[in-house]
Task: structure prediction
Amino acid sequence: GGIITQTPKFLIGQEGQKLTLKCQQNFNHDTMYWYRQDSGKGLRLIYYSITENDLQKGDLSEGYDASREKKSSFSLTVTSAQKNEMAVFLCASSIWGKNTLYFGAGTRLSVL
Amino acid sequence: DAKTTQPDSMESTEGETVHLPCSHATISGNEYIYWYRQVPLQGPEYVTHGLQQNTTNSMAFLAIASDRKSSTLILPHVSLRDAAVYHCILRNSGGSNAKLTFGKGTKLSVKS
Result:
């Protein structure tokens, strides 16, 4: 088995601040994803990466940057945090061509 | 990915068998039906999936209608640990598997 580790678990930022969220997986999966989950809503895809150094925009990429430095890690940057923003950011991974995703526990963001 | 429709919430009592419905009237021939569940402070967890035939594993039984326009996730003898939000989603079997659209899901409550 494997695990997906997201850091930090909780993140408090200031309006306008640049914030970076990190994700590591030891499944040796090719594909990694970042989703945003708002209270009472479903998941929305921000960015995904099919392999190392690949980046693909999702439906919600505006306001975010991503980086796939190596196969096991995928970072997400909030380029300018919005005041009163609260959301959970979920990282996931999968084998390319397989549809089963494995998720991390999430990073909970609050912006003051 | 095509759209699915689920009830917002369902209630049950420990020991009961729970039937969670999902409607996917516009499903296409190469789309699999996937179920994930999510408990508070955790990311979604894979439960099961199927294409046409009913499937079973240690977590649940998935019943798929013969026309594939609906499916039901059956949880036998639920316990308090089964309380979660259950998401029914559709995934293409080929091409890019990156985009994964989760809706709000069904919030299952379990009473002791």
The radius of gyration of chain A is 13 Å. Chain A has no helices and eleven strands. The mean pLDDT of chain A is 92.
